[in-house]
Amino acid sequence: MSIPRTRRPGPRRTGGPVRATVAALALALTLPMTGTALASPASPDPQPTTATGSAGDRSWSVTRSADGYHVTLKLDDPLPVRDALPEIAVDGASLGYARQATDGHTLSLVTTDLRAAHPDDVQVAWNGATDTVTTSRHAPRGTGRRGKPTATAASLTEAATAKGRYHVARADYDFGDTAVTLGGLSDRSAELRAAVWVPTDAKGERPVVLFLHGRHSACWNADTAKTNNAAWPCPDGYQPIPSYLGYNAAAETLASQGYAVVSISADGINAQDASYTDDAGTLARGQLVLDHLDLLARADKGAAPGMSRLLKGRLDLSDVGLMGHSRGGEGVVKAALLNAGRAHPYGIDAVLPLAPIDFGRETLPDVPMAVVLPYCDGDVSNQQGQHFYDDSRYTGADDDVLRSSLMVMGADHNFFNTEWTPGVAAAPASDDWSASTDAVCGGASPTTTRLTAAEQSEAGTAIMSGFFQLTLGGQDRFLPLFDGSLGTSTTVGAATVYSEAQAPGRSRSDIAPLTAPASNVTLTGGGTGTYCAGFTGRPTISALGACTGSTGTSRFPSWTPANYAGNVEATPLLHLTWPENADSTDTPATVIEIPKGSRDVRRYDSLAFRAAVDENGPDTDLTVRLTDGRGRSASVALSSLSDALKANPSSGTSTLLPKTWLQTVNWPLEKVRGVDLSDVRRITLTAPATAGGVYLSDVAFQTVRAGSGGPSELPQVSVAGAPAAENAGTVPVTVTLSRSSRTPVTVNLQTVAGTGTQLTTSARKITFPARTTSVTVQLPVTDDTAVQPTADTVYKIYLSAPVGAVTGQGYARVTVHDDESTV
User: Degrees (nearest 5) of the Cα angle 555, 557, 559?
Assistant: First the structure.
């Protein structure tokens, strides 16, 4: 039987990085006129002075004396009763926890922060962000229906990149270039080396964030500036490239906020994954992450000789976040899956793949995830990491976590890592977008959208810091960086960021996923609606037709064929097209009937769906309409909610651009007027008079939150092959589940051709009926008269995109003996 899932109730742990320590709370509650500073202190001018001000519903005064700035805030209405401690914010920045007077109207604190000297505005803040509280059903513009904190992109970027209140010390370790042996690297050796940042004055065990860099040259010669990636350990005269030091800004920021941050080196894998792996090193990278977590667990117990004493009793390995860049992105997903298969897994609660590869299309349900895609990526230019988001959306019935994907405009692949950035790195580095004069992404173009290296580094730090403070620390104020609620786009530092986000399952009502024909979805008028998946000319196991006739796979992240799943269906959705209809007599519309039982949507914040303008037509628009049981309706232009139906920028010369990428469109239900939200019957998407085309998917009502995740408890699906003679006709392949499921499980099996001709590249979908754990597939073998290059030919088989399970042993080898061979 399926094991019932027990989830942890959200953020927890005394002494977490975003909760005040017991001592700090005591200070805030027992010392009159004293606030717990959330910003770096600075000595005030000792001369006394007074400043006053007011703004509508409040007034304030600031008195300066030798011990600091005494800030007093008086509210017209009593402070609302909340679980969070009130704070005082000056010009939008929280300065610390406030003392609340018994009258309920007066807050005060003493601070040495110079920003309190001449404030333009003083407000109440909660959890570091200001907000407006209302008891009306419809909150004022700019606030959530449930009193969500208001925020601006600038304030969130500043908060995410700001140094926290903790002092930070380094606790690096290095056990040499051959300290570990990795099964995923054909039992070859790699280093056990890491930089570690520890918040020294933060009490108790701290959540752990681990960074894994991607595939860069492993070694370099400082005299000749030449690199070497052909040997490990590095040859004489060469030294390892410290790629693991490329995320120092994000590490220092998170550590100052109370997290223990570990950035590990993977040069040994980079130097050997091309020759000694079946999966480009993904399994080895996942194993390396777990080896480091095992070492850190021993260090936390004081049982790891050679590790810093700063780590003893300081690491909460029940609360772990992983960030992986490039090949490291798939590596940390693999680490989370390997961890889930352990008898006693670590609490991997969040995963952030940054500009990742996804060669195997492994799904990651039950773990909060944010995929980051750089628009000007010249390395992983097809942005295949989008599959992590697409493939994981509906894979587990009990999936209750935030899933997000961000498109960072103007960012390349390398500059998120300073050790891969020219002018900053010690070893040779380059801009991976090689066409420097490209009008959109070229660094030398006068019309470029490119970020500078410093701007991209800041954006990366804000995204990484904000994500882990949100998911591990419960800082919900950072949700707008990932859920698109700030408007058509979010500005993170200098970067424009578009987003798509799927809310946790328990705070979402899926009305029409639009992955296949459904009885509640119809098309009216003169348009055409087609369910489709992938590219023309690529044979797949799908019964759906192709979505695009383009051969530019780098322009369509959702459909780019994965290296080990090239014939597997990719991201089915609904493609709508319509002709010009100048007199509007036959207006095309997609009508979605809301099933009985899903019509009361008052508990949700928004109507959400994903959309993109197709590659064939101009920018377009849709009218979105909600209709209730009495026939009353409300409508809005999609263009007022999102830029989804505007084409992304194109230079006209690069085959990598423009990207067709679906954004999440959110229509806040607080803005819906004249409709009974307890009885919504229909969603209608109406086309304009001008011809056009759009892609649509994932229609749902939802309230976005981080959710509570951890290691997935879904069964793991694995594959094993057996040898066979060429004249046997078939070769058996066995696919197994680690335990049975109460519901059917599906997975795709891809054969990748070897050097011989007996097995051809193909894919098939395998279904496990409920309560079964093993399926044997007979792959057809071609019995020909050709003499193969070798007597025994090895073919590789891979599993991908499971539903109802997660990947265990995802690949295997099949050996076919040539009966014409004399050996």
Answer: 100
